[in-house]
């Protein structure tokens, strides 16, 4: 009999199979997630990261859009600025061109002026050594078709200071006519006569207590030198004395119907007519009808306004040359109102004129 083979518990093939199975189980165990909560936390973190990235993406897109919009606006401003610059350059070119043309016209005008012959000036009708073209008074122009010159020849027209006026009132006629203000008055009349238009008619009226028309009592032509010289001679014979009766002078002038009136005086009137006594505004001014030897400033203002209002000078332009005197501060304002109402001028000339 054959001997039996001794049986063995495991073989190599069986161990290999068991090892492979055990390895597969371990591999499966390693691949399977055991902690489910940790997996959900990871998903939440990933979702949060994704949301953050999406927010950043939207912010970047908005910033890009804003940048593009700003770039477009900047481009528009650049275009507008460039257009404005072009327009300014065109305007500058036009101005420069106009300036060049003006310069050419100026040069041509200067050349024309240089070539123009200036006619010799005609001499004044009245020649006076102390009166020249340089002595024209700014603002005062002698003009008009019928020019009347009303000259105050009262005692105050001799001097500016009251004490000198009072002293000269008691002097001789020659000394009165030699008063500095009266000599100046005569020069002013000469100045007006010399500057009057040649095609106008002229008359000179003197007034103090009464009035007198010089030059033979008629109108004389501005071109008649001999007649104007007679007026000057008669004026030189007048003696400045007595009160100032402006109304008498205005009545004489109104009768002549002038178009322009030039008054030479130094202040408000001092004399009135006896009929003023019955007028209520003059009830307190006794000097106006001879009831007093002095007259107040208020009464002089009342008398002036009454005299101007009493004598009608329709359409006459009144110009007043007001010479200085001491103690008559209201004269300038009253004469200014009168001249401005007639569209004339009030002139208080410098001491050196004319």
Automatic annotation (TrEMBL):
<dbReference type="InterPro" id="IPR036465">
    <property type="entry name" value="vWFA_dom_sf"/>
</dbReference>
<protein>
    <submittedName>
        <fullName>VWA domain-containing protein</fullName>
    </submittedName>
</protein>
<keyword id="KW-0812">Transmembrane</keyword>
<keyword id="KW-1133">Transmembrane helix</keyword>
<keyword id="KW-0175">Coiled coil</keyword>
<feature type="transmembrane region" description="Helical">
    <location>
        <begin position="12"/>
        <end position="32"/>
    </location>
</feature>
<feature type="coiled-coil region">
    <location>
        <begin position="50"/>
        <end position="112"/>
    </location>
</feature>
<keyword id="KW-0472">Membrane</keyword>
């Amino acid at each position: 009999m054959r001997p039996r083979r001794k049986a063995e518990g495991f073989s190599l093939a069986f161990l290999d199979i068991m090892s492979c199975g055990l390895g597969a189980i371990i591999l499966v165990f390693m691949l399977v997630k055991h902690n489910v909560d940790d997996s959900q936390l990871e998903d939440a973190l990933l979702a949060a990261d994704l949301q953050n990235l999406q927010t950043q993406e939207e912010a970047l897109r908005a910033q890009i859009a804003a940048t593009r919009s700003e770039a477009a606006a900047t481009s528009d401003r650049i275009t507008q600025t460039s257009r404005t610059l072009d327009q300014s350059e065109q305007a500058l070119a036009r101005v420069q061109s106009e300036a060049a043309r003006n310069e050419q016209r100026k040069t041509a005008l200067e050349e024309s002026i240089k070539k123009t012959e200036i006619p010799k000036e005609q001499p004044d009708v009245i020649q006076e050594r102390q009166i020249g073209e340089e002595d024209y008074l700014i603002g005062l122009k002698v003009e008009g078709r019928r020019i009347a010159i009303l000259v105050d020849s009262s005692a105050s027209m001799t001097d500016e200071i009251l004490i000198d006026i009072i002293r000269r009132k008691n002097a001789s006629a020659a000394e009165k006519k030699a008063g500095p203000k009266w000599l100046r008055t005569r020069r002013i009349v000469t100045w007006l006569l010399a500057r009057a238009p040649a095609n106008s008619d002229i008359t000179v009226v003197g007034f103090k207590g009464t009035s007198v028309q010089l030059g033979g009592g008629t109108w004389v032509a501005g071109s008649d030198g001999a007649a104007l010289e007679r007026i000057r001679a008669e004026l030189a014979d007048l003696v400045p004395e007595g009160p100032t009766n402006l109304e008498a002078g205005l009545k004489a002038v109104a009768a002549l119907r002038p178009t322009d009136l030039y008054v030479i005086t130094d202040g408000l009137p001092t004399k009135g007519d006896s009929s003023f006594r019955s007028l209520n505004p003059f009830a307190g001014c006794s000097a106006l009808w001879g009831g007093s030897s002095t007259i107040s400033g208020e009464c002089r203002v009342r008398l002036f306004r009454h005299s101007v209002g009493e004598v009608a000078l329709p359409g006459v332009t009144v110009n007043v040359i007001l010479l200085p005197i001491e103690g008559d501060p209201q004269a300038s304002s009253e004469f200014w109102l009168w001249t401005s109402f007639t569209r004339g001028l009030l002139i208080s000339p410098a001491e050196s004129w004319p």
